Amino acid sequence: MGRVLAVIIWIITLLSVLLFVSGKWWFPAAISDHAPALDRQFMITIIVVGLSFAAAQIGLGWMVWKYRETGKSDRAMYTHGSNRLEVLWTVITAFVFIALGVMGQSVWASLRLHDAPPGSYSVEVVAQQFQWNFHYAGRDNKFGRTDPKFIDDSALNFVGLDSSDPGGADDSVTAALAIPVNRPVELRLRSKDVIHNFWVPQLRFKQDLVPGMEIKVHFTANKVGKYELACAELCGQLHFKMKSYMLVLPEEEIQALQVLPQEQFQARIVELLAKYPLPTY
Ligand SMILES: [Cu+2]
User: What angle do CA 100, 101, 105 make, to 5 degrees?
Assistant: First the structure.
């Protein structure tokens, strides 16, 4: 029985490793400038973790095989273990994980801790149960003033635009995100109710939207197209419906959109959503 169990452990280990090595289930092709660095970091991490996993499981199977019931009446023996070994593998594990963290932090920090480069395209993202609202500055490149007291979903004022501010007269709010290709984009992320999470797998980052905070991230998308955008934080009963699309558009298309009044802006977004197919996986 011991041998059977050992072999089962080894087979499960092999199958688990094959799931990753086969490459059949992997990320969709990336479309952001920082993605190659992130994918490289992910690959290093998965190799390190994969080797540790395989070594631990092979060792486990080996112990099950070696110390199986053999019919001889060997008595179990108490051992206190080895403090030296405990310290050694704790230090090795800590070193490996700290090193991975330090190696990965530069990409993470480049998206979040530095200001977006000048000339970036800014969009305010306001999440709520269970929809995405994207607020664009319009022709004047200035976001109109918003205040939570003006939020009125029944009047379609989802982001709380202050109608007395002339800077907001040309602003648009849509349910889909449209950004330019090959130009830095800054998202200012806010939430009206609970924690949501902005996720476009092709961009290779996820970011929480936290009530009471404005969180800024910036990135550059480098491939025109339509991509699925999902909320990746369980945010309530209809969380599964909280999805939208991100359109990465040629600069001229964005310039043309930018000057359209709200209703035409929304109509154009609908046309563009129909124009671009989703990438095939
Ligand atoms: Cu959500």
Answer: 120
Cα 196 to averaged position of ligand 1 atoms, centre (Å) = 4
Residue 160 CA to residue 162 CA, distance in Å, equals 6
pLDDT, one tens digit per residue, over 245-271 is 999 999 999 999 988 888 898 999 999
Q: How far apart are CA 263 and CA 172, in angstroms?
A: 8
Residues β-bridged to residue 229: 244
Q: What is the pLDDT of residues 115-125, one digit of tens each?
A: 888 889 999 99
93-133 pLDDT, tens digit each: 999 999 998 988 888 888 888 888 888 999 999 999 999 99
279: Cβ contacts below 8 Å, ≥ 6 apart: 28, 29, 202, 225, 227
CA 116 – ligand 1 centroid, Å: 25
Could you say which DSSP state residue 217 is in? E
CA of 213 to the centre of ligand 1 (A): 16
What is the length of the chain? 281
How far does the centroid of ligand 1 lie from the alpha carbon of residue 188, in Å? Answer: 16
Q: Distance, CA 269 to ligand 1 centroid (Å)?
A: 22
33 backbone φψ class: left, alpha, beta (φ>0; ψ -120 to 50)? alpha
Is a pLDDT exceeding 70 seen at residue 281?
Answer: no
